[in-house]
Amino acid sequence: MRVVLVSTSAAELKGHATGLWIEELATPYYLFKNAGCEVVIASPAGGAIPIDASSMSEGFFTEDSKKFMHDAEAFGQLSHSEKLDSIDFSSGVDAIFLCGGHGTCVDFHDNAVLKSAIETLYAAGKVVSAVCHGPEGLPQCNKPDGTPLVKDKVVTGFSDAEEVAVQKQDIVPFLLESKLKEQGGKYESGENWTSKTCVDGTLVTGQNPQSSRACAAAVISVLKSL
Questions:
Q1: Which residues contact 63 (CB under 8 A, 6 or more apart)?
Q2: Which of 67, 100, 155, 183 is a plausible cystine mate for 132, CB 3.0–4.6 Å?
Q3: Distances (CA, A) of 207 to 61, 85, 96, 147, 204
Q4: Are 167 and 92 in contact (CB under 8 A)?
Q5: Planar angle of CA 127, 21, 166, nearest 5 degrees
Q6: What is residue 56's three-state secondary structure?
Q7: Which stretch of DSSP H or E encloses residue 23?
Q8: Residue 217 exposed, middle or buried by CB count within 10 Å (0-12, 13-18, 19+)
Q9: Where are the beta strands (DSSP E) in the chain?
Q10: What are the CA-CA distances from residue 135 to residues 52, 80, 204 (Å)?
């Protein structure tokens, strides 16, 4: 099984330093590896991926994140990520996993290459998954019948309450919860900063950094059932 982890390439959001929230890539990376998957790390621009410094601060720098930063092979992949448009999503890819971090608010939400990758996989019955701000990449996508990808789907993602709590509500392109609801998604959330994962067919979403492990585990379960 081949899983493509997609990270942001953006280090700044309207003057605010940002990037990848490392937990949301590191934990899924090891879960997928341990499940025997081939893991590819990709980004819109390719090459080195910026990491949000806050995700390596006290209380947020998880054990998997620390392990990843000292893992030569893993960090090597992060430093030399594959450019998203160099990957053929029409064959040989079983799942895409969109990692979060506020950088996605710059280069996920209006990205034709990412849109095509997601729509191609979804139409082929492959797994489309995203955690925290990773679902920024979903609203631009449609099902094969032309309706929004998330319409009538049980989904989650960074909640409006969490966005307000981190005081980024005025600089993000849209509030993710509100946007998913606007598109007809059956949005669900847990309490702020608690693990919440939704599975609806081959669409798997996680609410926040605390959901990255459960979200990746759910992807593995769906892959095994296909």
A1: none
A2: 100
A3: 18, 27, 17, 23, 10
A4: no
A5: 115
A6: helix
A7: helix 23-34
A8: middle
A9: 2-6, 12-13, 16-17, 38-43, 82-83, 95-98, 127-131, 154-155, 186-187, 197-200, 203-206
A10: 18, 23, 10
Residues in the chain: 226
Write down the pLDDT at residue 29: 98
Give pLDDT, residue 226. 96
The string of DSSP codes covering 71-130 is -HHHHHHHHTBEEGGGS-TTSS--EEEE--STTHHHHTTT-HHHHHHHHHHHHTT-EEEE
Which residues, other chains included, contact 127 with Cβ-Cβ below 8 Å and sequence gap of 6+? 94, 95, 96, 121, 202, 203, 204, 219, 222, 223, 226
| Strand-strand pairing, 38-43 and 186-187 | unpaired
Tokens of 163: 């966005």
Residue 16's pLDDT band, with cuts at 50, 70 and 90, is very high
Structure-token match 């631009």, residue found: 140
Residues 6+ apart with CB under 8 A from 35: 1, 220, 223
pLDDT, residue 18, reads 98
- Most distant CA pair in the chain, distance: 46
User: How does the average pLDDT of the chain come out, rounded?
Assistant: 98
Instruction: Give per-residue pLDDT as tens, 100-116.
Output: 999 999 999 999 999 99
Q: What share of the chain has pLDDT > 90, as a percent?
A: 100
